[in-house]
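C-alpha cells as discussed.
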C-alpha cells in the first residue's frame, strides 16, 4: 500500500511538472532543462522546486499575474460547472428567451472554434528564432528612439533659426526701411519749407 501511495505521489508530481513545462513553453517558447536526478529527490523538495519555478514564471509573465489575480477573486470561473445545474436564478422562460436570442451565433462560434483546433502549432524552432531576434529588435527600437530624438532636436533648431532669420532679417530690414522713409519725409518737408520761403522772399522783392 505504501509503495502504491509513493508511486501515485511521484506520478502526480511528474504530471504537475509536465504541465508547468508546457505552460513555460507556451509563454516563453523554451523550457529550462531539468536534470534526471531531480526525479530521485524527495517529494517535498520537488514540490518546493515546482513552486519556486511557478513563482519565477509568474514574475516574468504579466498574463500569468493577471490570471492569478482573476483566480483569487473569482475561483468559480476556473471550475467546470455541473451540466445539470442551472447557473442562474432566472426562470426557465427567461433562460429560453436568452438562448433563442443567441441561437444564430452558435453555429458560427462552433465553426470558428473548429477552425482554431485545425490551426497547426508553429514549430519550436520558429519560436526560438523569434526569441533570438528579440535583442536585435530591442537595439533597432533603441536606434529608432535615438533617431526620433535627433529629428525632434533638429526641428527645434530649425524653428529657432527661422525665428531668428525672421526677427533679424525681415523685421530688422522693415524697421530700417521705415527709418529711411521717415528721414526722407523729414528731408522733403525741409525742402518744401525752403522752397516756400524762397518764393515768399522773391515775391517781396
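Sequence:
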Amino acid at each position: 500500500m505504501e509503495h502504491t501511495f509513493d508511486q501515485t505521489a511521484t506520478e502526480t508530481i511528474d504530471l504537475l511538472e509536465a504541465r508547468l513545462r508546457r505552460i513555460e513553453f507556451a509563454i516563453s517558447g523554451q523550457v529550462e532543462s531539468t536534470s534526471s536526478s531531480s526525479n530521485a529527490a524527495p517529494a517535498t523538495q520537488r514540490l518546493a522546486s515546482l513552486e519556486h519555478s511557478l513563482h519565477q514564471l509568474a514574475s516574468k509573465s504579466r498574463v500569468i499575474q493577471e490570471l492569478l489575480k482573476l483566480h483569487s477573486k473569482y475561483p468559480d470561473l476556473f471550475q467546470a460547472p455541473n451540466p445539470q445545474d442551472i447557473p442562474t436564478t432566472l426562470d426557465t422562460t427567461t433562460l429560453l428567451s436568452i438562448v433563442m436570442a443567441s441561437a444564430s451565433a452558435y453555429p458560427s462560434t462552433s465553426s470558428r472554434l473548429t477552425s482554431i483546433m485545425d490551426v497547426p502549432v508553429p514549430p519550436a524552432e520558429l519560436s526560438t528564432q523569434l526569441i533570438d531576434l528579440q535583442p536585435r529588435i530591442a537595439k533597432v527600437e533603441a536606434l529608432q528612439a535615438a533617431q526620433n530624438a535627433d529629428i525632434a532636436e533638429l526641428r527645434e533648431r530649425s524653428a529657432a533659426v527661422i525665428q531668428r532669420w525672421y526677427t533679424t532679417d525681415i523685421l530688422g530690414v522693415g524697421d530700417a526701411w521705415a527709418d529711411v522713409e521717415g528721414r526722407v519725409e523729414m528731408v522733403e518737408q525741409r525742402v518744401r519749407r525752403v522752397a516756400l520761403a524762397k518764393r515768399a522772399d522773391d515775391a517781396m522783392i
